[in-house]
Amino acid sequence: MNKLREHAGLALEQRRREFEAVGDTKPGEWAQVDFGEITLRDMFGEKVKVYFYAIVLMFSRQKYFEVRREPFATKAFVEAMDRSFKFYGGSPKIIMFDQDRVIVVAENCGNILFTEKFDEFKNYAGFSTYLCQKHDPNTKGRIENVIRYIKENFFAGKEYCGIEVLNSEALAWLDRIGAIRRSVNDFIFLKILQFE
Fold first, then answer.
1. Would 196 be classed as within a structural domain?
2. Rounded to whole angstroms, how far apart are CA atoms 189 and 28?
3. CATH (domain of 122)
4. How many domains does the chain have?
5. Burial class (CB in 10 A: 0-12, 13-18, 19+), 109
6. Backbone dihedral region for residue 176 (phi beyond 0: left; psi -120 to 50: alpha; all else: beta)
7. Which residue has the higher pLDDT, 150 or 20?
8. Residues 113-145, buried b or exposed e (16+ Cβ, 10 A)?
9. What does the alpha-carbon distance between residue 113 and residue 19 come to, in Å, rounded to a whole number?
């Protein structure tokens, strides 16, 4: 392409992305979701890879996450979201996601085709989705920072002793450290959930 451009005398257009700060949102309005993974050592020194789902409320920055041994499939993801909504006491109005295979089956000319289980849960819970462009971590910087914060703080020096232990420690950590900016104002939700 460079040779063709030189031969035709065409200059390569330099595109520069403009960024602007996103202000605070209204309470209960927005949340961001993402996945993370990390390798821990067990008591025998063996490496164990664990996967986690995290969500952060945009107004209060209250976090929630849970850990699994296997990568998240749609069913496990929906169950984790349901538990996070129970942790918060309801669901936010809009949730920002990556175009992940756990959520999205395909995109057809801008029409998003969700996985069946996720679409069912989304409709039941009553939240709207905002899907980021593929491979664009800058769009959802708050959850990216939460993923890094969980890795560098919760998992720092952590030994793998089982998923139940990790999830129990995660809830204790969230109550103690991870949810310090908890605000009553953020708990204006559409409805309380009982999804099965």
1. no
2. 5
3. 3.30.420.10
4. 1
5. exposed
6. alpha
7. 150
8. ebbebbbebbebbebebebbeeeeeeebebbbe
9. 29
Q: Which residue has the tokens 């669901």?
A: 91
Q: Which of 68-82, 122-136, 144-158 has the lowest mean pLDDT?
A: 122-136
Q: Is residue 189 part of a domain?
A: no
CA dist list (Å): 78 to 53, 56, 124: 10, 16, 11
57-61: average pLDDT: 84
User: Do 22 and 128 touch, CB atoms closer than 8 A?
Assistant: no
CA atoms in the 13 A half-sphere facing the CB of 62: 22
Angle between helix 74-88 and 116-125 (nearest 10):
20
Tokens of 176: 């103690």
Amino acid occupying residue 49: K
- Residue 58, token pair as written in the block: 């945009």
DSSP alpha helix (H) spans, the chain: 2-8, 74-88, 116-125, 141-149, 163-173
DSSP E strand boundaries for the chain:
30-42, 47-57, 63-68, 94-97, 104-108, 111-114, 128-131, 159-160
Structural domain including 171 reads 30-182
